Amino acid sequence: MTLPQTMRAVEIARPGGPEVLTPCEKPVPQPGPGQILIALDYAGVNRPDALQRAGNYAPPPSASPLPGLEGAGRVAAVGEGVSRWAVGDEVCALLPGGGYAEYAVTNAAHALPVPTGMVLREAACLPETFFTVFSNVFQRGGLLAGERFLVHGGSSGIGTTAIQLARAFGARVFATAGSAEKCAACTRLGAERAINYREEDFVEVMRAEGGADLILDMVGGDYIPRNVKALADDGRLVQIAFLAGPQAELNFAQVMVRRLTITGSTLRPQSDLAKARIAEALEAQVWPLLSSGAVAPVMDSEFPLDQASKAHTRMEGSGHVGKIVLKVR
Predict the structure, then answer these.
(1) How far is residue 196's CA from residue 43's CA, in Å, rounded to a whole number?
(2) What is the C-alpha separation between 217 and 87, in angstroms, rounded?
(3) DSSP bridge partners of 75
(4) What is the CATH number of domain 130-264?
(5) Which of 28, 73, 85, 256 has CA atoms 20 to 30 A from the CA of 319?
(6) How many angstroms separate the CA atoms of 6 and 9, rounded?
């Protein structure tokens, strides 16, 4: 594959709102040892991209300063020591950054084959969301078949993924969302009960069910003590973001007396080895579900690469259901 010297990309001109996302031209990156270069067809749009745009989520020192943490396309070049992938292979991949561009570099072990029957537009939505959900719900949170699982933001990319995976692995699924339309989307995906948080108290709903064995939360703030109240004895709370802030007042006596576990993680700062192990587990346990159609990404909307600002406006308006993608080429 003949590579150009430059590529179209979108950069963050300065910290700020969606309007600071600016089309630009950048040199095509080169893969180092253990890395691959991907000619991206599509890139996923995620909340961490907006945090980085606002100046609140700096990329690792070795990563591209361009936003974009996932994408799908074809391998354009391989670095020294890479044996699994060859030029021309279709892949989707978790990226350390740089996804809002025609080409991006990533660790070869963080790429996965495009599931059977899936187009690149859909595959671009898998890595960031599925790595996050699988590692936090199943590996960190230990969700088991038959347990009661509550996911906040059920109509988001994370939420729609978590509902489907938890249901596929035999859990009883509950979700919160902010409208009747979004609640209906959650139940269609497999939630046995969708709670409109504008009209109902999720704490009361979950306590009436016996409490949640596991809660996946990205809201934080005043949801933290409410989540603790909504947990069953021996329940677990996994925190993955703080849309309402990271601080809360909490009576930790409940944690001791009821044997609760509060944990959480963020994906980007984890080691290459940790991400590679998540990728291995996904390919073995989740990719067959995607190839069979038992689980599928929920698609909301698509924007051209040079309209990334409109994609961010759509995401931050919270009117979307599922994933937003950028069409790169």
Answers:
(1) 31
(2) 39
(3) 38
(4) 3.40.50.720
(5) 73
(6) 9
Q: How many residues does the chain have?
A: 329
Tens-of-pLDDT digits for all 329 residues of the chain? 689 999 999 999 999 999 999 999 999 999 999 999 999 999 999 999 999 999 999 998 889 999 999 999 999 999 999 999 999 999 999 999 999 999 999 999 999 999 999 999 999 999 999 999 999 999 999 999 999 999 999 999 999 999 999 999 999 999 999 999 999 999 999 999 999 999 999 999 999 999 999 999 999 999 999 999 999 999 999 999 999 999 999 999 999 999 999 999 999 999 999 999 999 999 999 999 999 999 999 999 999 999 999 999 999 998 899 999 999 99
Distance CA 259, CA 17 (A): 42
Q: DSSP alpha helices (H): ranges in 202-261?
A: 202-208, 223-230, 253-257
In Å, the largest CA–CA distance within the chain is 64
For 182, other C-beta atoms within 10 Å of its C-beta total: 22
Tokens of 235: 């329940």
Q: How many Cβ atoms from other residues are within 10 Å of residue 29's Cβ? A: 18
Rg (CA), the chain: 20
User: What is the rounded CA–CA span in Å between residue 199 and residue 101?
Assistant: 42
Task: Tell how strand 111-113 and strand 103-107 pair up.
Answer: unpaired
Q: Which long-range contacts (CB under 8 A, 24 or more apart) does 59-64 make?
A: 59/96, 59/97, 59/268, 60/96, 60/97, 60/268, 60/269, 62/96, 63/96, 63/97, 63/98, 64/29, 64/96, 64/97, 64/98, 64/101, 64/104, 64/105
User: Which DSSP symbol is given to 169?
Assistant: T
Sorted by where each begins, the domain ranges of the chain are: 6-125+291-327, 130-264
State which amino acid sits at residue 322: G
CA torsion sign for 209, 170, 286, 272 is positive
Q: Which residue has the tokens 């059920």?
A: 154
- Please name the amino acid found at residue 164: Q
